[in-house]
DNA sequence: GACAGCATACCGACCGTATAGTATGTATAT
DNA sequence: ATATACATACTATACGGTCGGTATGCTGTC
């Protein structure tokens, strides 16, 4: 909150501070409800700094989506879920990891680009496209492992690795909405649990505490 | 777009027209980006009418969420997916139905209360609660059938009917986000397909074109 | 190594407009 | 006559964006 003075060490990173402020404030209040002044105050910079770095509020939106894409890419690339040798194990580790990082305040675990997409998909194509790139770019990082696991373990599948990768993101995004509605991150984790169960089912891998037993359908 | 005159037959339904305008415009532009004037213009009424029926813009938001809850409840209650005798068949018919109504322009098939939840969850508790009631109220209509199907066909389950009902809504909401991001309703339908496959798996029911064959896991 | 010249980074007052909300008046139904 | 259902004109403010200015650092020249 301390404003950088003329010769403060923070000089030079107003842009980054604004992008970080955007990341957090927009996740709390949404894009349209977040004013330029909100962002400046939260970043501890002035309006002059804002419009020095960003031509318009919308261009800040694009930059924020790209910043999100970059930082989350790096974050996931260095995450430990890539360690297992088996591709399916990597996928399950990914899902466990996604579940583990759903914690704290809503704005800390929800997805900036998912939030912005909802608001601007029809009115700000530039922002929407940047958000779209981030979402589908991340989904694409899962495809190779899904494809490998599919080839290794499944026959006669009627789904593509691409669609399943996208589905994982849909489940996460939807879980965030329910979590916001109820004010409870457990609802997002709960959906990831169902998704994990789906993966175990379609890849035919037993859970530690499995539900592999079935009752014979009774006639009603 | 035609404004009702003093003695036009539309007199008396400004409130409904505003709620319908809210339903459509907010799904396009989002709540914050939708101005009161936008709504008045779209409904063909004046500001006086707006603030006669709604104390504030936020109270319109609450009313719109409640209107959505009422109209969608009636819509789903009279839908044909309740016909099958078997509870699991009813659930699968529900999911087919949800898939079938994902069509046309984005604002025609997406969920008003999901959209609003994203925006206002932190800043307008009254709206969020109304949205929350709509989402979880609808999810609750699925619980009895899920519970019945579970008791009929599953043993040793580690999931509750309640959580699975919520998960269906999460998948739908998430599918809408991806559809908005890509501008393509197919992405929402695709996620429903995965959800249907999940239901078939956990309830152990064969698909017409099944993927019940599995390859023996190869060593990598 | 001092200094001119220049670009970048930022400041903060200001502007025009859009926005939520109000005040007051009027037509219609009961 | 009174309440309801609007219509119209108006207000205060918040908002995105502009503009002239200043501080800081870099670069080449002598």
Automatic annotation (TrEMBL), chains A, B:
The record's section on InterPro entries has:
DNA-bd_HTH_TetR-type_CS, Homeodomain-like_sf, HTH_TetR, Tet_transcr_reg_TetR-rel_C_sf, TetR_C
Which residues form the DNA-binding region?
35-54
Record-linked SUPFAM superfamilies: Homeodomain-like, Tetracyclin repressor-like, C-terminal domain
Q: Name one GO molecular function term.
A: DNA binding
Q: Which residues form the HTH tetR-type domain?
A: 12-72
Q: Which UniProt keywords apply?
A: DNA-binding, Transcription, Transcription regulation
Transmembrane regions: none
The UniProt entry, under Pfam families, shows:
TetR_C_13, TetR_N
Superkingdom of origin organism: Bacteria
Protein name listed in UniProt: TetR family transcriptional regulator
